[in-house]
Structures are given as C-alpha cells and as structure tokens.
TrEMBL record:
Ranges annotated as spanning the membrane: none
Full protein name: Replication-associated protein a
PANTHER family: COBYRINIC ACID AC-DIAMIDE SYNTHASE (PTHR13696:SF99), P-LOOP CONTAINING NUCLEOSIDE TRIPHOSPHATE HYDROLASE (PTHR13696)
Organism for this UniProt entry: Levilactobacillus senmaizukei DSM 21775 = NBRC 103853
InterPro entries, sorted: AAA_dom, DNA_Partitioning_ATPase, P-loop_NTPase
Origin: domain of life: Bacteria
C-alpha cells in the first residue's frame, strides 16, 4: 500500500488547521481510504473532536492502552492507536505529550536524531494506511519538525487575514529550510484558503497576496467557507445526516470537493 503522509500547518493559531486536518481525514475515510490522523498538539483539539464524535455519534468509547507520549517513550506507537470507525484511526494527544520535547532532548544528542525519531516510529505502522494526516501546534518546535520529517507533503491552511498570511509565509520558509537541511523528499501540496468572512474584500485581497507569494499553481481552487455547522461539530461530534440535514450536506459536499482537489494535486505531482 502506498502511504501518503500530509502535515497541515501554519505558524498562526486559530486558522482552522485542526478542523481541516480532521475533516480531510474523515472524508478520505468515507471514500474507503484507510486513514490515520496523528494529533501531535498537546492542546489535543483533534483528539477532542474525534472522541466527541465517537461518544456522541457512534456511541463508542476510545479504547487504547497507552497515551501517545508513553508510546513514543517506549518506541512503539501500536498500543496508542484508537479505532474511530472502519477506515479511520487516531493517535490521540494527551496532557503528558507536552513532555515530548524534554524526552527528545534528554534521550538523543542532536537535532537530526531528535527530529527523525517520530518518523522512524511512524514508519512501522504507516504501511497499514492510505493516508496519514498530521496535526501540529502553530509554533516552531519539535512537534512541527518531527511532523515535517515524517511527511511527504504539506497543506498550508490559510485563513484570509494578514497575520495568517504572514504565518503561512514563515511556515513555508521553514519547510524549505528543513527540506534543505535534512534532504527531505517533501513538497508543498497546496495552500488551502479558509475564508474569514465568506468572500468580502479582505478575503479577496489576502488570497491575491497569497497567490503572488506562493504562486497560482500552489493555491487550492477550492475554498473553505465559514459554516456554523463546522463549529457545531466541536460540541456534537461530526454528524453526517446528509440525506436529512441540509447543513450536514453542505459541509460534507464542501470537503468532498476539497478531497477531490487534493487527490487531483497528488496525481499531477506524481505524474
């Protein structure tokens, strides 16, 4: 099985990075693609969303014998994997994950070894999946570098505001730097715009500036609009009553379009 590993990123917080990481993984899983989402953020927002989905929508409880931090220290991720549904698994974050940086610095002598540690562990389980989606904090730290080293591609999540654009530009510069430093085989899959006010003048101005900065070919044509139902998922879990609920139908149709473009971009890059 050819596994595609993607990090979603931006050095600006609150831009919708976690929501889009989870919804992309969820949508891929609904397409029959075996998917794993890795929550490498100690804030655990992706974990909270999927645990809420399990309890509120599926009526199940998370079943795992170790936290991700314990699994990382033991050198095997298998016992931390949570089965969400038929095609979707999760490596969940927990409070103790904030100790990961200290673990790396006390266990390994240099940045190269520290930054490649997670990738080596992930490679032992990733062959089970078609897609691995990594969600990381919006800062330059060991979580970010560990994810980038483990990834084939990056999707930059760009909320249409000036600070998000600057965070995206800084993120791509860091991507290029770490790619060069470690000779990584990693590419920018695209910049996914998340509209702040559904297409007002500021949205359009930021998208225009981003196109100038990143290039037309690197901009996703599909844009994620503001949708109240997406915010509601944090409380209710990801509902999918598309046949009876127009708001669910609109959300899932949107992410079907995002995933269509994601798959097309992969096809074009791979030739």
């Amino acid at each position: 099985m050819l596994t595609t590993t993607i990090t979603t990123g931006n050095f600006k917080g609150g831009v919708g990075k976690t929501t889009n990481a989870v919804m992309i993984a969820y949508t891929l899983s609904n397409r029959g693609k075996k998917s794993l989402i890795v929550d490498l953020d100690p804030q655990a927002n992706a974990t909270d969303l999927l645990f809420t989905t399990m309890s509120q929508v599926y009526g199940t409880k998370p079943d795992f014998s170790e936290t991700l931090e314990v699994a990382l220290k033991k050198g095997s991720l298998e016992n931390a994997v949570v089965h969400v549904n038929d095609n979707l698994d999760l490596l969940p974050s927990d409070d103790d994950l904030q100790n990961y940086d200290k673990f790396l610095s006390s266990s390994f002598p240099d940045d190269y070894t520290q930054d490649h540690y997670f990738s080596k562990l992930l490679s032992k389980i990733s062959s089970k999946y078609d897609f691995v989606i990594l969600d990381v904090p919006p800062q330059l730290n060991k979580f970010t570098d560990s994810a980038l080293v483990a990834s084939d591609y990056v999707i930059v999540i760009l909320q249409t505001q000036e600070r998000s654009l600057r965070g995206a530009e800084t993120y791509v510069k860091h991507l290029l730097q770490i790619k060069d430093d470690y000779s990584l085989d990693i590419d920018l899959l695209g910049v996914l715009p998340v509209l702040q006010q559904n297409g007002n003048d500021l949205d359009l101005d930021v998208i225009e500036d981003a196109t100038t900065s990143f290039g037309h070919a690197n901009m996703f044509k599909q844009k994620v609009r503001q949708m109240a139902r997406l915010k509601r998922f944090d409380r209710t879990g990801i509902t999918n009553n598309a046949s009876h609920d127009i708001n669910d139908r609109r959300v899932h149709h949107l992410y079907d379009l995002v995933v269509d473009e994601l798959l097309e971009r992969l096809k074009l890059i791979r030739g």
